[in-house]
Predict the structure.
Amino acid sequence: MNRRVAVTGIGAISAFGPTFPDMWAGLAAGRSAIRPLTLVPPGSLRFLNAAEVPNYNPLSYFDEKDVQMLDRFEF
């Protein structure tokens, strides 16, 4: 079966930020996106640093009813 595909853009949500330009700027500058955790209470995890997505709002990408059904790692 032959199907045509049109790529109309590129997107990325990463620990550098919620857009592809954020990610590309971080990578091009050679920065690390690993930093202290902000979304969990201090001392609740063994590791203090992680690659969290800053200022991420799942409601920008999913309906509210879907967000309620998803775990945080699925956003």
Observations:
- The beta strands are 35-36, 49-50.
